[in-house]
């Protein structure tokens, strides 16, 4: 484990994490889910609400995050609402850690909540995955470049360039569902096979339904604090060791290489700043709106060489008891995906490092010890942005 401070003059710890009610939540507003998750994270930390002087939120409210902070009864002196899609929460965590280290805040609460599933079910809003009726993106929209189609194009390029197969991508969905089977909070827990994935309805070639994330309701919260607060915590801290952020493109024509995501940059920066190598990581929580996201992120974070992701994921390596457990809660493919899922990655990583996942799904090392190091990496847009955070118990 590296010595010294990863940021500025103060070390930064995760003090509390929590989920709101998730999955199918028909009787709550997004604000209520924010509040529920925030209360639970504070209770998890053992700290009083009065210690919070920083707040980060995105995706809700006329003046995010001010409106949500007001709803929660907070008057923060440090705020952030950077919104870069699914990577938002790793980026916000990086910003918060830097602010805490520099002394601009002592305790920053990150909160998210969404009723994406309930809104569509009730008719309160309709799904729109096309994006970009104005600005540069408008020139791609007439050609059917929905969000799903953009990922599908990238997957096809990887298949063409490196020989990656649909069966290999399907094995990601199968292993993720196996991880979800032991998670009582996961929306889908029944086992699936490669044939189930390949035989489903095609959504955007080559993706069938089970290659794609689910739609759920839910929220979560993470409380970051300065090391000064650690003696007051109810549980042992999980330390923020390093982070990295990066952006790539919005229009597909500006993407240099469909087989490389911005995680290649954010991951390198996070590992360098943490003083950690990818082969030291015990588990990875990766954004998985589609199976291809998992594969290419594993490559770009350095867990395998470029083009070798298909072979890497095809051996059961991603299972809870595999060589590199990935998305141990069942991920966005099976557990929950209420929109911008990045904060859920941090919650699950912290719970695993604390040893709180429960006997049926707790990751343990070969000698039976708890994991020491985890990485959470979020992806936004269609590989437009990436945020990577390295966490450790020591």
Automatic annotation (TrEMBL):
Source taxon at top rank:
Bacteria
Ranges of residues in domain Thiolase C-terminal: 244-393
GO MF annotation terms: acyltransferase activity, transferring groups other than amino-acyl groups
Record key words, sorted: Transferase
Signal peptide coordinates: none
Q: Which InterPro entries match?
A: Thiolase (IPR002155), Thiolase-like (IPR016039), Thiolase_C_2 (IPR055140)
Task: Kindly provide the name given to this protein in its UniProt entry.
Answer: Acetyl-CoA acetyltransferase
Q: Which organism is it from?
A: Streptomyces sioyaensis
